[in-house]
User: What shape does this take?
Amino acid sequence: DAKTTQPTSMDCAEGRAANLPCNHSTISGNEYVYWYRQIHSQGPQYIIHGLKNNETNEMASLIITEDRKSSTLILPHATLRDTAVYYCIVRVGGNQGGKLIFGQGTELSVKP
Amino acid sequence: NAGVTQTPKFQVLKTGQSMTLQCAQDMNHEYMSWYRQDPGMGLRLIHYSVGAGITDQGEVPNGYNVSRSTTEDFPLRLLSAAPSQTSVYFCASSGQGWGNQPQHFGDGTRLSIL
Assistant: This one.
């Protein structure tokens, strides 16, 4: 079973920041938080991941709470092309892990 | 750089037929895996491999076989197709230290079993 809980759906206005929450209250010390998205029925696209520090890349920012029990993916200026299903996944690090266990994800609709 | 390549993109089979879904990656990745995605659901792990000659089962392995003879290729075999195996199949790969390396996904194979 997935170790994360996400809202089923969210809406966001185009040009505004999209903040997608994720709860992972049973996360272990060696587990990373990963975010992927899936547009239509394409293959999932990697967005960002982190262990305990906040992370930023050209696509998004990842904010992880100090106790690591929850995180938020931030798309700073959402566009219509960001409409997709977003998956938050916890994954064991190093060569002992690797498996991605997908939940239902959050369906983000970016509206004009 | 092709990344992860899956073939075929679409396939229709009759119940009881066999086939092999191909997956190849050109990134010299050790870790490869197969997922299936049914309508309205997230991806479920079928089988995975941490290197040539090493494979293991995921969440839903029944009805599928895999082998890993080279680093580049990780084929998925359906020995006797069943309608319940109608799904979209995704292959993915990760580099060394795969738990903290992103997985790269192919574009999928859409399989229908009649």
Remarks:
- Strands of chain A lie at 9-13, 18-23, 31-38, 45-50, 55-56, 61-64, 70-75, 84-92, 106-111.
- The CA atoms of residues 30 and 38 of chain A lie 26 Å apart.
